[in-house]
Design a protein that fits this description.
By secondary structure, the protein is of the alpha/beta class. It folds into five domains: 94 residues, Glutaredoxin (3-Layer(aba) Sandwich); 204 residues, Rossmann fold, CATH 3.40.50.11540; 90 residues, Ubiquitin-like (UB roll) (Roll); 90 residues, de novo design (two linked rop proteins) (Up-down Bundle); 56 residues, Alpha-Beta Plaits (2-Layer Sandwich), CATH 3.30.70.20. It contains 22 helices and 20 strands. Strand 14 and strand 15 form a beta hairpin. The radius of gyration is 26 Å and the shape is globular.
Length: 593
């Protein structure tokens, strides 16, 4: 009998769902077994089904979801010991021969390039990365000239996956052509701050060597000696795995002096922990933070390619961009750009969140429609509710309505909707979502995260937020809609960096596509989605109330009164609209109006 491998996903998503307890039980069950290997891997992608355990044998992998200790014992007894697949909680069956490539069967319609190793290797073991063609892209690169490497990246059509979509090859060419100061920097932007985004975290936790190899290739191409990974401190596992991977890469000769025996190819990387400032996702603010200054953007030019870290030529790309590079160098530009749509080539990783059935991480070819991503890859709307909108690009993005669901996922098409691709956060909303409240939430976020340097951003977003808060409190007037749009235009034109320039996007798109909801809040003093607490009231249907008093016991402010076995009443003046009464009512006699 061939050796069996049992893997368990232990990225942050897996651990948060109880993966460590399952791993502990797995080690107990298989202790002393020489015919079975236990492998602790990263994010498999199906975060909604964590903890995830896979049994791999004879070229086949079977993955089970929502595994607890009891079900694990059954998997070990029936599948590992008796080779009988357990159909219950089996969510994926795939071959293992083609997982180095692109058409990985791990998820219908997915094409995994960036995620080619995620959930398949132990991220703390460089040997497993090397066994799956790791660092072969770097080995190929050093047999080429730096200009040939840049041309390969340029021909691939790879654009920056951090949000702006600037061609990576052109950016590298600028950095290579910068005035030779004897010192250049290569920076990885891992300051992932969008609510609902977790792409970079998952890649760094699950496959850190792909990013390190991409950076080493970039350093060879542009002539950089120093590398910095700017990672938010809120990602402790990513930082820990990066530290292990960097030390292993030095030991194996992929970082340090004369890398791979190439004279003068000296490059090393260290991790700089960010303090959680959203604005530091902007290049010049990130550079200031690396230098120990307050993270605030500066005017450009000069651009980082000419004057970046310590005023040295600097190239900055994000995690996903660098993770693509080794695959491109190894397989060729043509293998990459055969996927895509228009000027947007290759694939895009999305963090799928919100009111969907299958939340998690997915990588799809550019050009797939939003409808396919949401309803095929993400499984559609949770509880089969009606789709309302999808927020793309985080606080800097916008809400795309149902009538635009056939929009292709590419930079130009998404921009045309008023949203942006961003780094890849995709938050799906259903009919119970209030888009006015969503706009208020995202604007509150960017207003708080504004560095304060530009009056348009610092003051303008504050004024917009005040107007939105008045509207959600039922105190708005129709003129507020025009005020919001006028302020939005001024903030976009007057702000220095991308944070301010894109801050109004959620407000502009929700007004553009859902103006009727703003009018309902202002004129009718009603929240159609029944979310804004000041515009709703809870009431008891006396004909259905059984007088069980569960609602009264649940009410935190004593707003519900009534005798046992008799209809109860809710005092609207005392009610705080927490919803606990409705949640605890066994006969669903409490309504929201």
């Amino acid at each position: 009998m061939s050796k069996t491998t049992v893997t368990i996903g232990l990225a942050s998503c897996g651990i948060a769902s109880g993966g460590l307890l399952v791993a502990e039980e797995l080690e107990k069950l298989l202790a002393g077994r020489e015919d079975v290997e236990i492998k602790k891997v990263g994010c498999v992608g199906y975060c909604y089904m964590e903890p995830l355990v896979s049994v791999i044998r004879d070229g086949k992998s079977h993955t089970y979801g929502k595994v607890n200790a009891d079900f694990l014992r059954r998997v070990v007894d029936e599948h590992v010991n008796q080779n009988q697949v357990v159909e219950e909680r089996l969510i994926l069956t795939e071959g293992t021969e083609d997982v180095k490539g692109t058409e990985n069967p791990r998820g219908e319609k997915q094409v995994r390039i960036v995620l080619r190793n995620s959930g398949l290797i132990d991220p703390k073991n460089i040997g497993e990365y090397v066994a799956r063609d790791g660092y072969k892209g770097l080995e190929k690169a050093v047999r080429m000239t730096p200009d040939e490497v840049i041309k390969e990246v340029l021909d691939s059509g790879l654009r920056g996956r951090g949000g702006a979509g600037f061609p990576t090859g052109i950016k590298w060419r600028f950095a290579r052509g910068a005035k030779d100061t004897g010192d250049k920097y290569l920076v990885c932007n891992a300051d992932e701050g969008d609510p609902g985004a977790f792409m970079d975290r998952s890649v760094l936790e699950s496959d850190p060597h792909s990013v390190i190899e991409g950076m080493a290739i970039g350093a060879y191409a542009v002539g950089a000696f120093h590398g910095v990974i700017y990672c938010r401190a809120e990602y402790p596992m990513a930082i820990r795995h990066l530290g292990i991977a960097l030390e292993q890469a030095r030991q194996w000769g992929f970082l340090g002096e004369n890398i791979l025996g190439v004279p003068g190819f000296d490059f090393d990387v260290y991790v700089k922990e960010g303090a959680g400032a959203f604005v530091c996702g902007e290049e010049t603010a990130l550079i200031a933070s690396i230098e120990g200054q307050r993270g605030m953007p500066r005017p450009r030019p000069p651009f980082p390619a000419n004057s970046g870290v310590w005023k040295k030529p600097t190239n900055i790309n994000n995690v996903e961009t660098y993770a693509n590079v080794p695959w491109i160098l190894l397989n060729g530009a043509g293998a990459f750009n055969r996927y895509g749509h228009g000027r947007s080539k290759g694939t895009k990783v999305f963090a799928l969140a919100g009111k969907i059935k299958k939340g998690g991480l997915a990588e799809v070819p550019m050009g797939m429609s939003l409808r396919e991503v949401i309803f095929d890859v993400a499984g559609g709307i949770e509880n089969d509710r009606k789709f309302k909108a999808v927020q793309l690009g985080g606080p800097s993005g916008g809400c795309v309505p149902e009538r635009l669901l056939d929009t292709p996922v590419d930079y130009e098409s998404i921009n045309a909707t008023g949203a942006i691709m961003g780094s890849g956060g995709m938050v799906v909303m259903d009919e119970d979502t209030c888009v006015v409240d969503v706009a208020r939430f995202f604007l509150a976020f960017v207003q708080k995260e504004s560095c304060g340097k530009c009056p348009f951003c610092r003051v303008g977003t504050k004024r917009m937020l005040e107007i939105l808060e008045r509207i959600t409190q039922g105190e708005g007037v129709l003129e507020d809609i025009d005020k919001l749009l006028n302020l939005a235009a001024q903030i976009k034109d007057g702000s220095l960096c991308g944070l301010g320039q894109t801050a109004p996007n959620p407000v502009q798109t929700t007004i553009k596509y859902f103006r009727d909801e703003y009018i309902a809040h202002i004129v009718d003093k009603k929240c159609p989605a029944k979310v804004c607490s000041a515009l709703i009231r809870y009431s008891v249907d006396a004909s259905r109330c059984i007088g069980c008093a569960r609602c009264a016991k649940a009410c935190p402010v004593g707003a519900i009164s009534g005798e046992l076995k008799k209809p109860h009443l809710i005092d609207d003046a005392t009610c705080v609209r927490c919803g606990l009464c409705k949640k605890n009512c066994p006969v669903s006699c409490i309504s929201v109006d």
